[in-house]
Structure formats: structure tokens, C-alpha cells
Design brief:
The chain is mostly beta strands and 1179 residues long. It is built from 1 helix and 87 strands.
Length: 1179
Amino acid sequence: MKKRRRILALLLATTLTLSSMPAVLAKEGTKPQDSTTKEQPFWSGTGESDKFRIPCLVSLDDGTLVAGCDARWTTHMDGGGLDTIVSYSKDKGQTWRYTFANYLGDNGNEHNVNSTAFIDPAMATDGERVYMIADLYPAGYALNGAKKQPVPGKSHDDKGNILLADARNWNDVWGSERTNSANYTYRLIKNEGEDGRPTYSIQDANGKIMEGYTVDAYFNVKGENVNANLFEADSPFQVWPTDYLYLTTSEDGGRTWSVPSILNLRRDSEQSLLVGPGRGMVTSEGRIVFTAYEFTNGDKNSAAIYSDDGGRTWKRGKSVSGLSSEAVVTEADGKLYMFTRHGGYYVSNDWGETWSGRKDMGINYNLGCQLTAVTYPEKIDGKTAILFAAPSNTTTRAAGKIFVGLVQEDGTLKWTYDYSINGSDYYAYSCLTVLPDGTVGLLYENGATEIKYIDLDIKDIAKGATIGNIWCTDDAGKTVSAVTMKSNESKTFTVNGLKDSAEVTVNSDNESAVEATYENGKLKLTSSKVTGLKQAVVTVKCGEADTELHVNVTDSEKYEIVNLRVGDTKTYTDKTGNYSDNKLEELDKDIAEVILEGEDAKDEEIKPEAEIQLGTNAQFDGEKKKISSSLFTFDKKDNGKYAISATTAKGEKVYLTPKTAATANTPLTKTSADITVAKGEDGTFSFTQEAAGGAGGILYFHKEAGKLYFDRNGTMHNNCKFDIYKAAENAKDSEIPGYIKVKDLSEITDNGQYVIASKAEDRRNYLLNPSQETDKYSYVAKVTGKMYEGQPTPAKTDITIKGKAEGETEVTIGKTTYYIIVKNDVKEVNLKVGETVNIPGKIVQAKGETDSISKVERNDMPPYKAITELKEGTYLFGSGTHILLNTPSSKDNPTGLAMQAANFNVGEYNESLWTIEKSENGYTMKDVNGKYVNIDNQNVTLKDTPQTLTISKRSQGGFAVSRNGYYLNNWEGANNKVAAYTGDDNAWSFYKASVGNVVTGEKAGKVTLVTEGTTYKITVEQDPVTCKHTWGDWEVIKEATCTEGGEETKTCTKCHATETRQTKALGHKFSDWEVVEEPTATEDGYEERVCERCKARQTKVLPATGENNNNGGDTGNQNNGETAGNSGNHDNSGNSGNSGNQNQKPVKTGDMADPLTTALGMAGCLGAIIAILRRKSGK
């Protein structure tokens, strides 16, 4: 147990006055043990933390992925006890091992406004070493989520030493003394330890060392009755209350981390200088570059911070000209490109020291969210390519997209390709990297406090692009990646990007269809005589560079290539005729199934009606429709209010609910609500929903020409005034043909149909349009002033093609030939005898040594997939990371049911399944024990009595579950209780278990199982227990270093079992001492020696030859202008002392601090002795 600073008081009294005791203190946390996760680095619950935010990610030359983020424990806030967790993977994200790289523990591993905070990590790498910078806030300070906000002021002296204030006699470390610069008369002086790690001493204004206190490399301060950290609230000396850029490095792929350095780059006038979270970079010139931005009463401008000596010293470049906030930087064609949160990009020709003016991006994305960018290592379409990822929804953090920008000859960017990451789902902060094999890795926030890793193929991101540092162009100079040829045809292409005198080889993987030759910079393709469709991939290779051309050879004039897996379907529509009587005689029905549904041409029966027009922006130049498609039904309630509903184009019934809608600009949901319709003095009407919650409940419309969309307001406003129109045969001279204005509430009949209109500044009428889409403009329709003309419906055929077995076939329908290629994904599986694996899906074929396995069918196995349409059945129920349990939550007031973290891919949760059954106008939810979910106002319990619940789809995704206006709610977002709340602010999911087989290895052999979508190639190996091992040689897995042991492993050549052994640390091998700086009469000098193996340095002070005032600073840490000096034990090769020796004291751990010793008393005694723990944290 770590003891905190204590002041002992001896009190003699006849009674104990408890009111004189200090406040109850929060417990101190213990650093969680390193451990592993599967598939994802930061499942909720990893390292005991429930919530994670702010991803950072790099990949190393050996393929290791290193991911990091904030472990936010129990909060979504940006302060109050956050730590940095890092996880690394050596198998492309299949397994991860995590550690807490930055940890103090003064929060008790939960949110505490009086605690320190590591926030917003960013990583950079040279391929071997990882550099990570995070913002460190002293206890109780942060931009939000903490007791106080940071304060401008001087945090370092002129030599770069951290300034300290003597807080031993303060009553409150957040009081006025804390922000009085006159109190900061002490400084932290750096010394070099014998083991290569720095230590520090505290020096007063006269240069006198404060005896009795020591400060280690992690800023832990010790003394009599003192064991704290300089950044914690109970430190006897306090730092200036601002953020500190906290640099650490890893030499072993994220497994361990070096002692920290503090970068002194913030100006005294700045409230905070914060690192741009996500990724930095190491340029082709070896410069380490991160971005950092000022926050002083709001976001300010970004700059590059950089080091040219492996991280020993740092400088700050000029800020960009525009408001930027968080930013990311990447290198392309010898320049740096900075992309900023608030829009635009900037270019630097001097590696970040200065920047161009702001340049427009030319693409739409969310300007209120962090973003990420990385340069792809190979050219795309013959040009350097930058991958840029951000939420593409401009109004909310959703719809992640990767944009591919090609660098033009003038340095501008042309955004040529884009890729949808997750449809319209939640997407926020993210970080891109590229693995050595070209795979694109992406770590992104897929929930408010959730993080997900995926890897992507560049061929999917840049669909149809030419990828490679050599590329082919046609006669017009256009890059080519796909070629269509007829039989017996030749085509020639120019090969670009070749090095002089380099050898070029070409290869066709199907020479019976296409032959390829190369001569004098030209690639010649020659096709054979083919029937139907033949395909080939031609590869051109030059050194390490290559490119591919995908060639289709067919004599068909019109064709579709249909690529399917077993069980997949694709649908096409042929609008040239009704071909439903096609006999499909050419089709191999064992490989594919084709279903035809045809319609003959018909004329639309048109009734004269006003026309409306939809759109995706304020121009409304999209689809034209009848005005009747925007009619709303007014259902009058007994209380005089209305349920106002309509039907969308997709047949969904929606209700006007401006207050409880998921977003302000999408005022319709699938849940009915009472709406007050009130007439104003000017004859217009307002629509108000009264419900709990802070959002405004009055329907509002932005009438400005550039806006024209709905909103909600808390008070009445001119933009809350609407006209109600009803159809009328005698509508003459009306602004809306065929409709007249309703002039009084008495004209609104029960179940009558009306349109709700707002006249905008352009004098046009805009209607509320039935929708459940995420786009705010889908809820608006413009009245064009014309009559709807309608159009005849042509004949058509809907064609559905389903893959049944692997193979190729074709069919001609109308004038189009469909070439159908059914090919499954392939997954390799290795089992030991007795081991099992889940194979989801129906097994349609088994080949090979089928007796080497056994199969047991299951209908309740993982993975669990979220459904989009609810039907009666059995499901898991939960959020994106947690599921609802059938046990009471330990958190009461209100009463609720418990939750737990879930891995929907591999977890087994049979006891937490819920049966959904229809009941009256809703559903019941029953657990495995036959008890039902009951909602009683805010309380949620299980009872024997069924209760009918309303389950509806939400416009923003997921489902809502409610009763009488109370919705199931992840209470306080804490993931530990489901209670009920009056606002629909949670998107719940129902997860359906998979049907499949549990496969067990029975004996050695190989078998292939074909399912719908995936072919599993299973190798069963002999049980290692019965194997008489034949061991291979010992293989070094981890080299021993000076300070850490290594690891070796050997493998059995028969059963592939492994054994591992540890090797001893080598120990330092230091050179002789060498004088680096001679002492003078007034200034100390120093000498150093360097370890010949790891380059760790030891430094020794040479006293000044004259009067020595012992006022030497941090050697090399000179703050000249914008220069940050030596802020860590780094040498020019980048080695960092003892990088993360876990046997030494970590950043800081501790046990529970006992704030009050047990009172000792004796009968008849006149007093008691009490030991009081005096702490200033006020926890």
C-alpha cells in the first residue's frame, strides 16, 4: 500500500467532534494488469475501463499494429481521471495485448473531478520506434469534466525547468494561491541516474536544493510522510495549472514505454497547448512531426511541433492562418499537408516550420469532429494519394467515409474516389494507418465511448483504380486497371514509373484467354477466341513494384458480371421489357438460382394535383411528386391534443414529435405523441410537443434561402408559425393549387388530412414531408406552383440471382447476358484434436477427410447479428457494447436491470436471451426463466405478469422500447443499469444468434466445409499431449536488451506445440566518460558516457570552477523563442534510457488510501489519539 502525505495530530479530549474531520476521500486506483483481448483492442471492460475515446494508431515495419486511446473509466468527459491505454497486435488485429502506458491512479479508476487526466494521445513511428504524446492535466484541471479549467501563465523558467509552488501550507490547491505566479519560486532540476534514467531535485529561488525530497523519472515525489506525484493534488509542491505535453516512446512495439519527457512549447499567454490527437509522423527526412493547437477560451490555430534529433529537443513552427483546432499532418511529394477540424488544408514546403494559406477541400464532411489522414505508400492512378477519413454527415457525427485525394502536379488535391465505412451509423474520432502489405487499418469511434478496429483493402477504397508505383496508360494517357476485349483482339499500353534499365516481367494468370508481352516500355495484350466470358489478371512487375490489369474477354455486346458467394443474392432491373416467361435454359441451376418478376407497360392514371419537389439541399432539385404524398392525418385526442401522422414513401408510419425526435432537424419518429395545435392572432398555427427533457418542443422552420429545413425551439418565434392547408375542389386563386388555408381550429376534423406549410423568404411554400431518413432535407418538400404531370410506367423485369454452389454459369435475359461467378471467401482453421470451433451458417458441402471432425448443430451460437426488422423470436438485447441481463442492477433509485459487456462475435450469452412475442398493440420481453420486463415510470423490473411494451424503429437507427412515454435507458450512460426515462435518447439493438455447427477435431486430417458465404479449410493436428516432440532450434522472439530480458521459443515439427524460455538482460556496456561541456567560473559543465549497445546516456555535472550557485538547468532544454529543449533521456539514435522496465516504479500505481486511522480509546481515559490523513485533493 502506498502511503500518502500525512500530518499527525495528537488530540486529548473527553469527546470526539466528528465535524472537525476532513471530507471522505476517494479511493486510489491500482493499475490493472496487462492482458489480452480478441478481435478488438478496446472492448468495453478492457483493463476495467468501461469507456474509451480518442483513438490513435500506427503500424510498424514488421506489421505490428500499435493502438492507443483514453481509458475514460466511467465517464465520457474530457477530464477527471483519464489514463492512456495502449494495445498491440502482431496478427492484423486478431489478438491484442494491452498495457496502461500512462497511469496515475489518483481517480480510483473512475471519474473524479479532482484527479489528473491523460487525454488525446497521438502516435508517430519511424517503423521501429513509436513516439506518443498525450496531454497531461494536473489534478482537478481540464477543459471539462474537472473541478477547474486550465489557466494561462508561466509553467517553465527561462531554462526550460518546470516551475513549482510550495503548497505545504495551502488549505486548498484550487484556491487563489494556485494561480498566483508569485508563488512559483521553485523549479524542478533534472539529473541523470546511474541506470540511465533521469531523476529530479527541487530547487528554491536561491538555487538551494530542497533536502528530504526526491523526484523520480515519472515525477513521483517522496519525502518524510510523502509519496505522491507532482501532478496530483496531494503533492507538497504544485505545478502551474495548465496542460503538459507528455512524451513517451516504445522500442518493442508498444509492449513497454519509456520514462516521460515534458515538452515546453506552450506560450505563457495560452490557456492550453494540446496535441492533435490521432497520428503524427516521421518524415522522409527523419523529422518527427506532430500537430498541436492552442485552446484559449475556445479553439485556436494549429501548428507543427517537431524534433530533428530523435525526440531529444523540440521546436514549434508557425501557426496556420485559419481557425483550425485539431489537425493531422501527412507527407506527399516532399511537402507536408495539414488537414484541420474546422475545414480546409494547408501545405508546408519546409517540413512544418511555415504553412501556406488555407485551401478549400472541395468535399463535404463534418466540420465539428477530429479527422485523420495518411499517405498511401503506392501510387494510385499514377499519382501520390492521400487517404482522408471523417464523418461525411455534415450535421451529426455519422456516416464515416474515406476520401482518396490524388496530388496534382501543382500540389492541389483532386478527390477521385470515396468509400463508405459504416453506412449512416455513428462515426466520430478516427485514425488511419497503412500496414506493410498495403492493408489500410482504421481505428474509429463507433459509439459515444466505443472504439472499433477494421482493416480494409485499398482496392475496395479506390474501386477500379490502378494501384502501384508502376502503372499503365492507354493512348489517351488515361490510367488503366480494367480492360475489356473481344476475341482475337490486341491492345497496347504504356508502362509508366519504370526505373532506368530496370528489368520488367509480365504474366497472365490465364494464357488460354489472354497472352501478355512487354517490349520497349509497352505492354501488349492479345486475346484468344472465347465463348461466353473469360477473365485474366495480367501482372506487370519491375523490382519491388507491380501493377495489375483485370481483363474481361467476351463477344457479348451487353453483359453484367455477377460475383456471388454461396447464399448471396443480387437484384437487377431490366426496364426494356417483361421477360418473366424466359425459360433460363442456359443456366446451370446447381450453381445459381434466378427468379424473374415482370410487369407490362401501363399508363399512370393522373388526377390533377399540385406538384412538390424533394432534394438533398436547399435547392430542392430532386424527385417530383404529388402533393398528396405530404398529407398528414390529424387524430384528435380526448384531451384536445392531436396525434399527427403520415406515411413515408417506404410505407412507414411516422408521427410529428419535435421535442423527442433524435435530432432537432428530423421532427418525425415512429412513436406517437400528443401535439398541441394552437392558432395565433395572425391566423397561423403552431405545433408543440410537451414532454420531459431539455430540448425545445415547438416546431420551427428556417426560412432563410440557404437553410430551408426544420428545427425545434423552446419559445414561440415567427419561424414557429405555419399554415395548414386542406384539399378543396373550390380552391381558386390559392397559393397551393387544389388546397385552401384552414382558418380556424374548428375546421380540423378528426382523422382529417392536411399539409403543414411554411412560407419562406423566397415567398415559396415548404411542406413537412413524411420521412425517416437521416438527411434533414428529406423532411422538407417545396411546392413548385405547377401541376403534377405524371409519367407512364414502362415494362420491366426484376431479376434476382442467388448463388447455390461454387462455379460459373451464364444466362441471357432480354438483351443482357449475366455471367455468374460463385466463389466463397476462404478461411483457414487449425484445430488440435479435442478443440472446437464455431462454424456459422448452413453447411452445404463437406469434402476431404470428413471423419477427422464431428459436427453438432446449434441455433443459439455466436456471432450475434443486429437485426433491422423486428419479428417474434429470441434475441440478445443491448447497446453496441453491452447487453441487458435478467438480474437486478446493484445501482438503485430508480430500480433497473443490470448490464454487462459483450463480444457479439465469440461470446456465449444463452442465459441473457430474451423472447419477443406480440401482445395487443405491442410486444412482451420474456427472459429464460419466464419473467417479463415491466416498466413502471422510471423503474424497470422483472415480474411474472406480462406487460405490453411499444417497440419501434428509430429514425437515427436502432430500436426504442417504451411504455406510457417512458423509454428503456442506459442510465447515465454508465453501462451498469437499464432503467426508464421520458426521453428517447438510446438506440437499442436486438441481436439474433447464428445457426450453425460446433465442429470438434477428432483425429488428424484435412476437411473442407462449404457454408453460405465462407469455405472453411480445416486442418486437424495431433493432440500435443500424445505427441513425442521433435523440437526445432530455439528462435529469438524478443532480443534481450541492456535492461530487459529476452524471449526464445522452439516448435515441435510434428504437432507444432511451442515452448518458451526467458533470457537474461545484457546489462549496460558504457564507454569512458567524455566531457561534453567544460565548466566555467559561473556555469556548471557536464560529461557523459554512452552505452555501446542501447545508446543510453549517463550525465554527470562538472561544478563551476568559481562560485557555484547550483542553479544549473535541464541540460539542453533551452527555450529560445519557440524551441523546447532536451525533455527526456534521448540520444540521437532515438534510444530512451530504460524503455519501460516494469520492475521499476511505473508511472504511478497505488492501493486504497485510508483517510482515517482507527480511533484508539480506553474507558475512563480523558482523550483519544487520532491520526488524520491530511489531503488537499478534496475528493
